[in-house]
Amino acid sequence: MKYLDEFSDPDLARALLDQIHEATTGQWALMEVCGGQTHSIIRHGIDQLLPDGIEMIHGPGCPVCVTPLAVIDKALEIARRPEVIFCSFGDMLRVPGSRDDLFTIKSQGGDVRVVYSPLDALRIAQDEPEREVVFFGIGFETTAPANAMAVHQARRLGVGNFSLLVSHVLVPPAIEAIMESPSCRVQGFLAAGHVCSVMGTSEYPPLAQRYQVPIVVTGFEPLDLLEGIRRTVVQLEEGRHEVENAYPRAVPAEGNPAAKAMLEDVFEVTDRTWRGIGEIPRSGWRLSPRYADFDAERRFSVEGIDTAESAICRSGEVLQGLIKPPQCEAFGRECTPRNPLGATMVSSEGACAAYYAYRRLDLVEAG
Amino acid sequence: MSAGTQPSGGLDFEGWTCPLPLRHTPNVVMGHGGGGAMSAELVESLFVPGYGEAAATELGDAAVLPPVEGRLAFSTDSYVVKPMFFPGGSIGDLAVNGTVNDLAMVGARPLYLSTAYIVAEGTPMEQLGRVAEAVGRAALAAGVRLVTGDTKVVDHGSGDGVYINTAGVGVVPEGVELAASRMRPGDRVIVSGAIGVHGVAVMSCREGLEFGTTVESDSAALHGLVADVLATGGDVRVMRDPTRGGVSATLNELASASGTGVVLDERLLPVPAEVRDACGLLGLDPLQVANEGKLVAVVAAEDTDRVLKTMCAHPLGAEATVIGEVVADHPGVVVARTGIGGTRVMDMPIGEQLPRIC
Amino acid sequence: MCLAVPGRVTEVYEESGTTMASVDFGGVGKKVCLAYLPDIEVGEYVIVHVGFAIQRLDEESAKETLATFERMGILTEELAGPEEQVARAAQEAGR
C-alpha cells in the first residue's frame, strides 16, 4: 500500500538504526504511549535492534487494556439481554470481565456482533428496528470522532433503538498521571500519531515543559517508529525537552477541526477509571447531556454488578511500567494469552502478551 | 425449457419437467430430512443431477467398493463456512477439496468421498442445488467418486444454511512416509504459492466487514501437485495444508510435533499485495489467514531445488518458494525474521481472526 | 491503540446527508465516512480509522520525510569506515 511500504524499507531502517546507535551514549527509558506502536515494535522486532542503552516501556495506550472492569461487566450484562444486539470492535471480545467475556456471552446465546465501524452498528439498528442495538464505544481520541458521528447520526435520523456504551479515554491526562507517579522511570515519550491526527499537537508543549521530557509525535511504520525514537534520544542526549513532530504527513499542528468540533458537541470531559491504574481526573469522555438519550448506561439500568479483578494479576503495575510482566507470579503460569487473567495478556499490544512470546524464546535460548 | 418458443397453446412434452415435489417448495422443509419420499426425491432431483458424473450410480446408505492395492488413508472434515458463497468458490468446493487435501497431505491418492449435509429448514432449494453442483464439479475435477451420503434437516434456528461433512478414502503409495517426526535441522520449508488468499476472499463478503477486492479463494485439490512432488524421489519429510490459522498455525504444529524450531524469513513470504493491504486495513497477520489451495512442505536441504522446480512446473505450485528452515534451536517455537531484520516469535493463533482497531 | 491506514479517494458522494467516499487501499476498496474532511477531492490520500477519514495525508510531507531518511542513509554510508563497509557488504550478500 502506498505510504506504508516506503516506510518499511529495510535499508533506510538500517540507516536510522545506525544513527540511533551513534547518538546513544546514556541509559534512556522511553515510553511509546500507544498500543498500536507497541504492536508494531513487537511485530517488526524493533526493540531487539535498539542499543542496550534504550529501554522501551510499553504505555497504557491500549483501550483493550485500560477499559475499566466495571464497564466491561456492564457491557456483558447488556449483551446478555435478549432484546439487545451488542456490537463491538473485534478487540474487545476476549477481554475478561469479572467472570465472563463477550465470547462467552455469545456462546450462551447473546447476540454479539463484530463490526468494523460504528456506522455499521447504526445500520444494523436501522435494519432491525424492533431490537435494541448497543455499540461499545471504547478507544482514545482517534476512535472517538467515529463513535461521536454514529450517535450524532442516530439523533439526526431518529434511530431511537441505537445507543452507545461509552468509555473513552484521553492521552494527555494519562501522560500527566504517569509523570506524577513517584516511581516513574519514563524520560521521553513517543506521542501517539493518530491521536494527534485528530487532536493536533497543542496539548503537549505544557507537558514537555512541566515534566522536562521530550515528546515526539510518532507514526506506526518501522521507519516512523525509529525516527521517533531517534529524535527522542537526540533530545535526551542534548538535554532538550521539546515537542517535535516526526509524523508530519498525518499530523498537522491543528489536528482535525471538524472532528474536534463534533467531539465537543457529543462528549464532555469526565473523570475516568483506567483498569489497573485507577482513577485519573478529567481523563475520559462521556456523552454530553444533549445526547443523554443515547447513553446505554441510562437506557439499561445495570445495577449491582460485583466487580472482581483476579487476586493474583498485577497488570496494573505492568501498565504503569512499575514491574516487568515476568515479575508477576501468575505470568506464564495461571495467566497466558490463552487463559488471560488481566487485560494486558489479552491484546497483542498488551505488555504481558508481548512478553509472553519472547519469554518462551529467551527460556529456550538460555536453556 | 423452451416454452417461450412454442406456439401459443402448444404442448411441449420434451421441455416438461415434473413441477412436484421439489418445485412446489422453494425452500428446504423438515420433510426433506425425514428419510421418506421427500428425502428420496431430494436425492433424485437435486443431488444426483447436481453431482453429475462424479456420483456413483447409486447414492446409497453404504457403498461397496472394489479392492485396492496398498495402505488406505481415511479422513473426515466438516465445513461450516459463512457465507456459503464467496469470491472464487463455495462451501461445496471446500467440502471436496478440503478432505481431498487432508488425504493428499499424507501422500494418498484420493479415491472416494462421502457427503453428509445438515441443512437448516428454510434454506432456499436453489442454494442447496448450487452447493450440490459445486460439490459435483469439484469432485469431478479432483477425480474422486461421490459414493454415499446423507441429508438431515434441522429446525430453523438450530442451524444456519448448509453444513457439510465429507469423509474420504485414498490409497498411499508404497514407500511414502510423511511425518513431522522426520523433520531435521537444516530442512527447508516450502510454501506452494500465495498465502492468505482464501481467508481474505471470505472476509471480503462477511457481514459487517464487506470490502471490495478482486481476490478470489484459492480452493483447489492438491493431490496432483503432491503426486508430482513425491515422484521426484526427493526426501519430503512432511506436508500440511495451512487452512484455518494459516501458515502460522501449521508451522507451530509442525515445530511442536517434531521438537525442532522453525525460522522463517518474512521477506520471502509470498503475500499478494491485495492480501497484505486487506490485512493492513483489518489489523490481521497474513500468516494467520486461511488458505484452501496451498501446502507447506518440509524438505531435506539437498532435495529442495529438485522439489521446488517440480512444484513450480505444476499450475497449483507455480509460485512455490522457500520461506524458511528447520533449526535445532528453540524447539517447538517458530521465529520470524522481520522485514527490517528484527525477529519475533510467531505464536499459535489463539482463536478466530477478528479485525482489530488497535 | 489506533490502527489507521492511508488510502486514495476514488469517489466522493452523499449518502443520507453525509459525505462519503470510496477509498482504495491498494486494490482493496472500502466505503469511508468523509464528514470530518469535507474538502477532500478525488485522488487525494486520507488516513482511515474504523471507517472514518480522520486526516488528509500530506504527500509533500511524506516525500520530504523519506528524502530526509535517504540523506541519512547516504550519510551513514560515508561515515562508516572501509572495514565496516566491507563487513556490511558481506552481511548483505549472506542474507
TrEMBL record, chain A:
One GO BP: protein maturation
Record keywords: Iron, Metal-binding
PANTHER family per the UniProt record, alphabetical: HYDROGENASE MATURATION FACTOR HYPD, HYDROGENASE PROTEIN ASSEMBLY PROTEIN HYPD
Name the UniProt record assigns to this protein: Hydrogenase maturation protein HypD
Record organism: Marihabitans asiaticum
Family, as annotated: Belongs to the HypD family.
InterPro entries linked: Hyd_form_HypD, HypD_1, HypD_2_sf
Gene Ontology molecular function: 4 iron, 4 sulfur cluster binding; carbon monoxide binding; iron ion binding
Domain of life of the organism encoding this protein: Bacteria
Gene3D superfamilies named among the record's database cross-references: 6.10.20.100, HypD, alpha/beta domain 2 (3.40.50.11740)
Automatic annotation (TrEMBL), chain B:
CDD domains membership: HypE
PANTHER family according to UniProt: CARBAMOYL DEHYDRATASE HYPE, HYDROGENASE ISOENZYMES FORMATION PROTEIN HYPE
Source superkingdom: Bacteria
Pfam families in alphabetical order: AIRS, AIRS_C
Limits of the PurM-like C-terminal domain: 184-334
InterPro entries in UniProt: HypE, PurM-like_C_dom, PurM-like_C_sf, PurM-like_N, PurM-like_N_sf
Residue span(s) of domain PurM-like N-terminal: 61-172
Name of this protein: Hydrogenase maturation carbamoyl dehydratase HypE
BP GO terms, sorted: protein maturation
Source species of the chain: Marihabitans asiaticum
Family: Belongs to the HypE family.
UniProtKB/TrEMBL annotation, chain C:
SUPFAM superfamilies: HupF/HypC-like (SSF159127)
Signal peptide: none
Entries under InterPro entries matching the protein: Hydgase_assmbl_chp_CS, Hydrogenase_HupF/HypC
Pfam families per record: HupF_HypC (PF01455)
Gene Ontology terms: biological process: protein maturation
GO molecular function, one term: carbon dioxide binding
Family membership: Belongs to the HupF/HypC family.
PANTHER family named in the record: HYDROGENASE MATURATION FACTOR HYBG
The protein, known as: Hydrogenase maturation protein HypC
Species lineage: Bacteria, Bacillati, Actinomycetota, Actinomycetes, Micrococcales
